[in-house]
Specification:
This protein is mainly β and 213 residues long. It has two domains: 77 residues; 97 residues. 13% of the residues lie in helices and 47% in strands. The strands form two sheets. The protein has a seven-stranded antiparallel sheet with strand order 5-6-7-8-9-10-11, with no helix packed on it. A hairpin with a 2-residue loop joins β5 and β6. Keywords: Signal. This is FG-GAP repeat protein.
Length: 213
């Protein structure tokens, strides 16, 4: 066999081996992924939703995880984890935050196309409500989610209303007010579009966009 032919075969084999090694590990169910991701901590599912964020035609799962039985000398940890579904019914890790934002009451997760909307509900008592929503959108080039929007809403039904939104793609910050039952823009400002934060390793306690209040 000619030397050049043998070299070509060797290169092809090495390429195949590298591709095999690059394949993410598959798990039979979501709990197995969480256990492997956090071997020294115990997390339970707070809430979850399904959606096909990476666009491969298979349902993925987003989870808000709450640490239990952790050390008493530090706050409990909250994580946002997204698992990619496979055609065979297994799961692989798609992305995972570091310390995610704490909700005083509960969370709502919603899938819209390639976007994952995560709402932390801080107040939901009678006529009083306050929420913070982060919009993450999956970027195939980065193989990760990017933070593209943020919205804060607070309301005392029939008395007070406030809302602010940040569009990180357009570099736009808008505040709203309600007048005579209609919600209108009260202020709008532009800002330099920042590098988009990724979900992988996202730390809510240290992240500061420098824009929203």
């Amino acid at each position: 066999m000619p030397l050049t032919h043998r070299i070509s075969i060797a290169v092809a084999l090495l390429t195949m081996a590298a591709a095999a090694c690059a394949q993410p590990q598959e798990f039979a169910h979501s709990k197995a992924v969480v256990a492997a991701l956090f071997p020294n901590q115990k997390f339970v599912e707070w809430t979850a939703t399904a959606g096909d964020w990476n666009g491969d035609g298979v349902q993925d799962i987003a989870l808000i995880l709450n640490e239990v039985d952790g050390p008493v000398d530090r706050p409990m940890e909250i994580r946002l984890v997204v698992l990619a579904g496979t055609a065979g019914g297994a799961y692989t890790l798609l992305s995972a935050s570091s310390s995610y934002c704490v909700a005083q009451k509960f969370y709502n997760l919603e899938a819209k196309g390639a976007s994952l909307w995560v709402t932390a509900v801080d107040k939901a008592e009678g006529e009083v409500s306050a929420t913070t929503t982060l919009q993450f959108r999956f970027n195939p080039r980065r193989a990760d989610f990017e933070l593209i929007g943020k919205e804060n809403v607070w309301e005392v039904q029939g008395k007070e209303y406030g809302r602010s939104s940040v569009n990180y793609l357009a570099g736009k910050f808008i505040t709203y007010e309600r007048t005579k039952g209609r919600v209108k823009t009260s202020k709008e400002k532009r800002f330099a579009v920042p590098s988009l934060a990724s979900l992988n390793g996202f730390n809510c306690t240290t992240y500061d966009d420098g824009v929203s209040p």
